[in-house]
Amino acid sequence: MGGGEGERERWARAWLSAVGEPGDGFMYRLVAQEGAVGAVEAVRRGCVPDGLGISERRLDGWRMRVAAADPDAAMFICEQVGGRLLCPGDLEWPSTLGHLREAAPIALWVRGGPDLRQICLRSVSVVGARLASPYGERVAQELGAEMAEQGWTVVSGAALGIDAAAHRGCLAAEGLTVAVLANGIDLAYPPRNSGLLAEIAARGLIVSEWPPGTHPTRPRFLVRNRVIAALTTGTVVVEADLRSGALNTANHARSLGRHLMAYPGNVTSLMSRGCHDLLRSTPPARLVTNSTEVIEEVGRIGEGLTRPDRPTYPRDTLDPDSRQVLEAVPATGGGATPMEIATAASVDLITARSRLSLLHAMNFIERTRTGWRLRKAPPGHPQP
């Protein structure tokens, strides 16, 4: 272990990322007290300072991995795949990871071009079920694309189902996306997403706490979820069953004080039970149905308040008297006289006549031989 102090610290954190498991508060406290280089020496000697609560059993577990730890090989592979090792104190290190306190990462292996800290300043995580329904995948893909179009980074876990759909939607809209993995940045898991992960590496970022060559395990998926939640300003659960790992990410988001949102689904769908449970919990997740509502939650004050897609009709522009007169015009039969309409609308005859002329000019009504009636809309068109 040569080089300057900064390089020795970086080498030590690469070593520790292979010896300890991410999220280990005991390892965090050891590094905080001794520094990364001192922590390496303490583990190698098998002698850690008192007062940190580190048991012999835990220390023995670390030491069993010492022989297999090869930070030089890990950093070489990292460079070969276009990656880099980030450490706390680096300009690219996201300060929001500090909110994890003793569960904060020791280091991050990152693959891709963008600056992790910069692109996560305006980011949201989109997570959900692996066995997603067509509804869930469509919603996640649309949400990923729409968030990208508004300049937001989409963060997820690159799993099958909702995660992959959110990443693909973001990439389709030429946006930035971050995949946080439970394995090394050089491995494609699940294999079916190898093409997706290659595209993310080329245009976005792949992030992991585990050194290259590390394979995923079931507990590691849950451990990495805290990083997904901590990197972003809010988490959206699109679809999840009651035992979905996405709910673990939601719980981390809630404990970190991040915005927590959930999409509603069909009440008969097992894949929406987790979302509905979040919406009923205390405090409840925020119900969202589109990107505008998500941005309204996580964006700056006033951002996302414009609500698109709210249908308007010509009658919405009418003044109160005109709407009242229109309601009094019959839809069928030979029509009604101005006096009959005035009486039904509770307006005077002069007001009725003037509003009838206006409504006729706007194609709401038509004249018959005996009075006025509503104009029939063409087939397939709503009444104006």
From TrEMBL:
Family: Belongs to the DprA/Smf family.
Family matches, as Gene3D superfamilies: 3.40.50.450
InterPro entries in UniProt: DprA, DrpA_SLOG
Source species: Actinocorallia longicatena
Chain's gene name: dprA
Protein name stated in the entry: DNA-processing protein DprA
SUPFAM superfamilies, per the entry: MCP/YpsA-like
Signal peptide: none
Taxonomy, superkingdom: Bacteria
Domain annotation Smf/DprA SLOG: ranges: 85-298
